[in-house]
Amino acid sequence: MSQGYVTTPLGHVRVTCENGAVTRVRWGQVPPKIDDQEPDPVLADALAQIEAYFAGELTAFTVPVEVVGSAFQKQVCNAMQGIPFGETRTYGDLAKLCEAPAQAIGAACGGNPIPIIIPCHRVLGANNLGGFSGSGGIEDKVWLLRHEGAAGLLI
């Protein structure tokens, strides 16, 4: 396992990699310095891609991810990865795609272990923004949507 962090306009983002894939992204947590950690090219790539995303230079993440969770959690995360940069979907849209209740989709979005890279911020309620796991909550979701130009209704 390897860990690193990047500072973004929304605060620190901690990335964890295992077995050649990103397995977790957490908000606001800086990992302790580990001097004997082997360099991890996947971690370095993930950190660079997150920096490029926030700099407006990246619209699609290519770093490998491994969602640790139930088959349903993996299905919902896969559906979220299919939402293009600058676009949004509703919980209902994903509910139809995954053949599950919208409430279950909302719970799976909230349990997304790899936010930003797996874009749960692009999933909205039918009549509201829904929730968001970022340390700044819904304000972070609004920031990300504006950053992607997906927030015409918010601007």
UniProtKB/TrEMBL annotation:
Report whether DNA repair shows up as a keyword of the record. yes
Localization, UniProt: Cytoplasm
Query: Which GO biological process annotations does it have?
Result: methylation
Please provide the record's keywords in A-Z order.
Answer: Cytoplasm, DNA damage, DNA repair, Methyltransferase, Transferase
What reaction does this catalyse? a 6-O-methyl-2'-deoxyguanosine in DNA + L-cysteinyl-[protein] = S-methyl-L-cysteinyl-[protein] + a 2'-deoxyguanosine in DNA; a 4-O-methyl-thymidine in DNA + L-cysteinyl-[protein] = a thymidine in DNA + S-methyl-L-cysteinyl-[protein]
Q: Which SUPFAM superfamilies match?
A: Methylated DNA-protein cysteine methyltransferase domain, Methylated DNA-protein cysteine methyltransferase, C-terminal domain
Offer one Pfam family short name for this entry: DNA_binding_1
Methylguanine DNA methyltransferase ribonuclease-like domain location is 4-66
Which segment of the chain is annotated as a signal peptide?
none
GO MF: methylated-DNA-[protein]-cysteine S-methyltransferase activity
Respond yes or no to whether keyword Magnesium is given for this record.
no
Domain Methylated-DNA-[protein]-cysteine S-methyltransferase DNA binding span(s) in chain numbering: 71-150
- The residues responsible for catalysis, as annotated, are 120 (nucleophile)
Enzyme Commission (EC) number: 2.1.1.63
NCBIfam families, alphabetically? ogt
Q: What does this protein do?
A: Involved in the cellular defense against the biological effects of O6-methylguanine (O6-MeG) and O4-methylthymine (O4-MeT) in DNA. Repairs the methylated nucleobase in DNA by stoichiometrically transferring the methyl group to a cysteine residue in the enzyme. This is a suicide reaction: the enzyme is irreversibly inactivated.
As for family, the record states:
Belongs to the MGMT family.
PANTHER family, per database record? METHYLATED-DNA--PROTEIN-CYSTEINE METHYLTRANSFERASE (PTHR10815)
Mention any additional remark.
This enzyme catalyzes only one turnover and therefore is not strictly catalytic. According to one definition, an enzyme is a biocatalyst that acts repeatedly and over many reaction cycles.
- Specify the protein name: Methylated-DNA--protein-cysteine methyltransferase
